[in-house]
Amino acid sequence: MEAESEPYVRLATMRQLHQAVADLNTARSLADTLQTVADGIVAGLGYELGCVNLVRPDGDLVIAAFAGNAAAEALITGRVGSRASWERRLSMGEAWDDLRFIPHTEGWVLLDDDVPQWHTEGPEPRFEDEWHPLDRLYAPMYASAGGRDLLGVISVDRPRNGRRPGAWGREALQMYASQAAIAISNARLRANMQRALVRLEREQQALRASEESFRQAFEYAPSGMAIAEMGGDQQGRLLRTNDALCRLLGRPASVMRRYSFADLVHPEDIGTLLRTSAEGGRAELRLSRRDGTYLWVSLRNSVVADTADGPRFLLTHVEDIEERKRHELNLAHRASHDALTGLPNSAELKSRLSARICERPHSPATTAIEALDAAYGDVESSLTHGYQADGYEGEAAPGGGPFDHHVHAVAPDPEHDDGTKGLAVLFCDLDGFKSINDRFGHHTGDAVLIEVARRLSTCVRDGDTVARLGGDEFVVLADGLGAADAADLAVRLRNAIIPPIRVDGRAVRVGASFGIGWAECGMTVEEVLRSADQRMYVEKRSRSKVHRRAG
Asked: For 471, left (φ over 0), alpha (ψ -120 to 50), or beta?
């Protein structure tokens, strides 16, 4: 009769197994799935107790779900067994395909290991295939079909028929373990996806908040800010500008997007801009305003990327430093110019003169070839002495090396006009100024000095220098003059000074004595000025007192 009823038992078990597997797919979370697996063991496979042991990230197994006994569930759920103890269990007893059965005759050695256990009471078995209370049956679950990556272990106890499962029962448990592994993997995947979606949403919210924060910081920054392209044909083109920069340069944002900073920078500052754009950092330069004027600004560049591998942009912070630059230029001007007349002072005069002469004395050249050698260095000498077989050896000539492009200053011969042009240094000392200063006071004396400075400045060329050494002494530097040209200039300057100067309704007159010196390479600045000063005193003594005083 049992043989005839076996198909019906298999059919009933199949229905129960099918329902248990179907229930696995209805669970909504990983915890629900694990509990459904445990409940399916009791409801669908005919065991009184079912336990799901899940592998943790550290490799140990935790009891994640229990079914069939509320007391046992409360006692051992959440407890952990080591991976080593579980591997020992899965290598003992009898292998029923993927299942592992440990009979009570062998399992007594496991009573003291660290795997949580729940012992059931019952009578000693009377038949060979009867279930003993200390028998153990495990169904390993693997993460992928055919793979050996352990996902967890299902442990069962006390079959309802009291017998060890036969071939069909073993196959049903193995099939259920396989489906349970799939359900748990899918539940984990869904949980991971949900966590990833939550994390992504949080990151997107943070990104949106960051973008909004940047937008507000960019748009409402008190100083100018701009975003420009990096690389490609549109290198440096302005993509976005804030209101502060538009107001600073007097152009609307729609117009600013037509330009790059290279279109707006002062021609003299283009090199500074290109270096700053390529290297980042800070630079001070001038940008063009809509009205055609230039404004001093400080640029601070930093490179930013849209994404980790996205295009790069140049974020530029633009600060108005016009007032500071004006103050710096004013301080520099005051340091290098006379406070009373506005002319270059003694220090500035010496600096300009020093830039024109060098320490190497000029050697006269009699031919055009020798003149070129003198101006640019002796090529033959540099080839034979400047370059040795082992590289750049040998000494350079004092004051310059081979191919020195410095044009030496020479002094024309006052006796023979051979067409030589030089740098004339005209030393001027006012005649009669002391008496005006003593008689009418410093106010009148200062007014006279200011007017003399103006008259001297109007009589020279744009590239010439008129400087005040101090007191009533002035110096004029005029390059490219011959001896006769310098003498004519001295006469013009003296004639410009002689006319009466009106101060507070009073006309006063001063004269002037000029000494003409020449700046020549090989001389020091002090020697050049001393030479012109001495010639001025020679000229002053050569004229009678009546002629020296203008009136």
From this structure: left
The CA-atom distances, in angstroms, between 518 and each of 375, 415, 420, 523 are: 19, 14, 12, 10
Residues facing residue 136 across a β-bridge: 102
Q: Which helix (H) or strand (E) holds 16?
A: helix 2-24
Q: For residues 313 and 227, is the Cβ–Cβ distance under 8 A?
A: yes
Backbone angles phi, psi at 46, to 5 degrees: 85, 30
Question: Could you give the CA distance from residue 329 to residue 311 in angstroms, rounded to a whole number?
Answer: 40
Plot region of 292 (φ>0 → left; ψ -120 to 50 → alpha; else → beta): left
Question: Which burial class, exposed, middle or buried, applies to 34 when counting CB atoms under 10 A from its CB (0-12, 13-18, 19+)?
Answer: buried
Q: Is the pTM higher than 0.70?
A: no
pLDDT at 551 over 70: no
Rounded-to-integer distance, Cα 474 and Cα 487, Å: 16
State the DSSP string of 159-223: ETTSB---HHHHHHHHHHHHHHHHHHHHHHHHHHHHHHHHHHHHHHHHHHHHHHHHHHHHHT-SS
Q: What DSSP state is assigned to residue 408?
A: P
Per the CB < 8 A criterion, the answer to whether 183 and 81 are in contact is no
Angstrom CA distances, 427 to 81, 489, 538, stand at 105, 12, 12
DSSP code at position 269: G
pLDDT of residue 2: 41
Distance CA 360, CA 1 (A): 131
Provide the residue type at 137 as one letter: L
Q: What is the pLDDT of residues 219-269, one digit of tens each?
A: 888 889 999 887 766 777 899 999 999 999 999 999 999 998 889 999 999
Enter the DSSP assignment of 137.
E
Residue count (the chain) = 551
What is the number of H-type helices and E-type strands within the chain? 19, 18
pLDDT tens column, 484-499: 999 999 999 999 999 9
What's the rounded Cα separation, in Å, for the pair 14 and 25? 17
Residue 3 to residue 8: CA distance in whole angstroms:
10
Find all residues with CB under 8 Å of 32, minimum gap 6, and list them: 187
Q: Which amino acid is at 31?
A: A
Containing 50, the helix (H) or strand (E) segment is: strand 47-55
- Quote the tokens at residue 223: 């100083």
Structure tokens of 513? 């004595």
